[in-house]
Amino acid sequence: MMPKEVAAMDLAHERYEGLEQKILAANPGADVQRIRSAFEYANDHHGPQLRKSGEPYIIHPLAVAEIIIELELDQDAIVAALLHDCIEDTDSTHDEIARLFGAQVADLVEGVTKLTRMQYTSREDEQMENLRKMFMAMAKDVRVILIKLCDRLHNMRTLQYQSDVKQKEKALETMEVYAPIAHRLGMQKLKWELEDLALAYLDPVGFQDVEQELENITSLHAGFVPNMQSHIRERLAEEGVQCTVYGRVKHIYSIYRKMYAQNKTLNEIFDLYAFRVIVEDIPACYNVLGCVHDMFKPVLGRFKDYIGTPKPNGYQSLHTTVVGREGIPFEVQIRTWQMHQTAEYGVAAHWKYKQGLANSKLGSEREFEWVRKLLESQQDADPDEFVRTLRVDMFSDEVFVFTPNGDVKSLPAKATPIDFAYSIHSAVGNSMTGARVNGRIVTFETPLKNGDIVEIITSRSAKGPSRDWMKICKSNEARNKIRQWFKKERREENIATGRAMFESELKHIGLSLAAITANQELLDTLLKRVRFNHLDELYAAIGYGGMSAQKAAGRIKEEMTRLGRLERQRAEQEALAGGATGDTVYPSAAKDSILAPRRSNSGIIVSGLDNCMVKFSKCCTPVPGDPVVGFITKGYGVSIHRKDCPNADPARRKPEEEGRWVSVAWAQGTDAAYRTSVEISAKDRDGLALDVAMALSAQKVKVNNLSARSQPDGYAIVGLELSVRDQKELNGVVNKLSQIPGVFLVRRAGG
Ligand code: MN
Questions:
Q1: Who wins on pLDDT, 514 or 477?
Q2: Ligand 1: distance of its center to the CA of 85 in Å?
Q3: 56 C-alpha vs ligand 1 centroid, how far in Å?
Q4: Staple 253 to which of 118, 194, 195, 435, CB 3.0 to 4.6 Å?
Q5: Is 90 exceeded by the pLDDT of residue 699?
Q6: Mean pLDDT along residues 76-96
């Protein structure tokens, strides 16, 4: 509530009355009561606060509101401008403002407050661009940016009261962040003023230099601007063109840039003077252009048609440079009134057009739509950064956060500390153990918000990323780096986990690993289908996430179905041919074909039988070096057993089959791999299967199958299917496996 004892008409109230007059002048139907109570509220809350200038603080929000009124923004924006420092500098809250002035106003004020709290410490160009983007992304409503720009403009106008350090800091921010944003929003007038104000503090000598030179040269051209102005006006009147003509000297910063950046002298700058001819419609623009070129000599290559091809920020005009009789070159800009509004006020011009629509409540959605349309209309014009960046910023799928040093990182929306860590360096991500956001410890899943300050806690003893991180993170960069890590650092683990994932996926779709690894030929065919040469490569790929287990299993099932179909067709054809006895054996995908021969030349010599079909029994899985014996099966060739296999025990042979047992011997010098099974008994513990996998890998043994199952008594059985060349290699493997901690028995199956 406002204190009643306030002096009848203090400075602040006096200024407020002026403001109200302006509002009523522009819009007689305005709800000034609401604006007045916003003023009283702010005045009350800022109370005795003073600005550095010694003025009451309330003068500042009043001045900002005045600029907002100049831009002819809507009433909510005016109210929000009056309240814009209340949340930041007084005990006022969003909720209170929402209750008194509506949610829209409260959101605007809160938006401005967020931008006010943003810190700009970085100086690199790339960082500056990210800062600008973050700035725009943080403001969900364009009006928030406009109020913040007006706030900055007034602060720049009164910067002389600040310390040297503050002056430089604010001026730099203005030049690097605020002016480019004003430019992007097409607000030329505001941009020029910001640039000139900033330059005066950033390079006072250069600024005065240009100012002085400008004064010198323009004093030589005394009367040039008004003369030329009326000259043009008269000629156009003769042609019957309705127009308004303005003339001016260009703003200092644009001349400064040409002199310093392009190293030109003032005499080499063709557009020191600029005249504007504003007309009713587009045909008149071209008409005026013709007249101007008729009156003065055009400078070659200086004509630009921004009506046909608007600038990315929506700017439209015809530009030409001509030389007058005095030999002074000058620029003429020709545009319609509407183009003029857009050129001066950019996005803000929107509210000007809206004025005619009495009481039309344009929600923020419609406003968005307008901005979107503005951008779309520019799309053909220039596929340039403006369209891209503003589009991304306003309808954002990016989030911008700070490093503790004040650098800005751009990440995909909803990015997490994991994404942030990997965006800094893969080493940071890989050694991350925790994260802080705005000083608070957070979980790795926490989505980051615009303007957050993110800090990653790392440790040299970190175990590296977890596989879950790939599901949590949002950026491809992080995902790729994590995948890379798993690929490199955890090959053995990848193989073990990949195998487990693959097997469980197979089970899920009704297949078993054994069915796939049943014979080498089939396995090779299947691996080819998923583009791997080796089963371990497939496992590793699944393990590090290069291929999903579902995809691999799915492809393999397809391939097996296809092979099964082929075989059935072949069997049918043979049956039709009449020659089929059912005795022929093919590598079969459709049935468990562990008994099928691995290769036609099996490395076994069967006495008395040349070139017969040979297979190795599943019960004892013999390898070269094992004493072996053969059994002639009915239709499946000769089955090879180890001599110590229970099934080959002479005491257990059936008498009627005695004649089918034949002696066999290993051939010399085969380099084939033989599949065999080994069973490990061990004390159950974490990492047992992994240790087994690692031991096998160290021995370079090909593992076809590994399955571990816990026993109820605290022990575990690990079943292995290996491919080895001979008994010697196998013995070496068994020996190594026996040395694994906790393992107390390693034995061959069937032995
Ligand atoms: Mn302020």
A1: 477
A2: 5
A3: 13
A4: 195
A5: no
A6: 94
pLDDT over 60 at 187, yes or no: yes
Work out the mean pLDDT of the chain and round it to a whole number: 81
Residue 670 has pLDDT above 80, yes or no: no
- In the set 44, 55, 70, 89, the catalytic residue is 89
Nearest alpha-carbon partner for 421 in 458, 379, 371: 458
Residue 651 corresponds to which tokens in the numbers above?
């005491």
Q: Average pLDDT of 148-171? A: 93
pLDDT at 352 over 80: no
Judge whether residue 201 has pLDDT over 90: yes
Rg of the chain over Cα atoms, rounded to whole angstroms, equals: 41
Contacts for 13 with CB less than 8 Å, ≥ 6 apart: 6
Given a cut of 90, whether residue 652 has pLDDT beyond it is no
Mark whether 88 is an active-site residue: yes
* Contact by Cβ (8 Å): 721, 703: yes
Domains delineated in the chain = 3-206 (1.10.3210.10), 207-348 (3.30.460.10), 396-487 (3.10.20.30), 490-563 (no CATH), 567-666 (no CATH), 674-748 (3.30.70.260)
CA of 61 to the centre of ligand 1 (A): 6
Report CA(147)–ligand 1 centroid distance (Å). Answer: 9
Tokens of 309: 């091809």
> If you search the block for the tokens 């190795």, which residue do you land on?
616
Contact 520, 599 (CB under 8 A): yes
Residue 498 CA to residue 489 CA, distance in Å, equals 14
Q: How far apart are CA 674 and CA 714, in angstroms?
A: 33
d(CA 414, CA 276): 47
Ligand 1 centroid to 127 CA: how many Å? 25
Q: How far apart are CA 167 and CA 204, in angstroms?
A: 12
Question: With a threshold of 0.70, does the pTM exceed it?
Answer: no
* Contact by Cβ (8 Å): 555, 509: no
Centre of ligand 1 from the C-alpha of residue 79, in Å: 14
User: Is pLDDT of 509 > 70?
Assistant: yes
Give the Å distance between the CA of 251 and the centre of ligand 1: 25
Structure tokens at 360: 């039309």
Distance 62 CA to ligand 1 centre (A): 10
Amino acid 155: pLDDT: 95
66-71 — which CB contacts under 8 Å span 24+ positions?
Answer: 66/19, 66/22, 67/150, 67/153, 67/154, 68/146, 68/147, 68/150, 69/19, 69/22, 69/23, 69/26, 71/146, 71/150, 71/345, 71/348, 71/351
In the predicted model, what is the mean pLDDT of residues 37-64? 92
Query: Which position has the higher pLDDT, 154 or 135?
Result: 154
Helices 164-173 and 188-202: angle between axes, nearest 10 degrees: 140
Task: Kindly give the distance from the C-alpha atom of residue 144 to the centroid of ligand 1, in angstroms, as a whole number.
Answer: 12
Helices 32-46 & 94-101 angle (0-180, nearest 10): 150
pLDDT for 396 equals 53
Q: Are 298 and 241 spatial neighbours (Cβ–Cβ below 8 Å)?
A: no
Quote the ligand 1 centre to 87 CA distance (angstroms): 11
- Taking only the tens place, the pLDDT of each residue in 575-606 is 666 544 444 333 333 333 333 333 336 678 77
Whole-number Å distance between alpha carbons of 715 and 696: 21
Q: Which of 44, 88, 344, 574 is catalytic?
A: 88
Predicted pLDDT at 635: 66
Burial 150-180 (b: 16+ CB within 10 A, else e): bbbbbbbebbeebeeeebeebbbbbbbbbbb
Mean pLDDT, residues 388-413: 68
Distance 154 CA to ligand 1 centre (A): 8
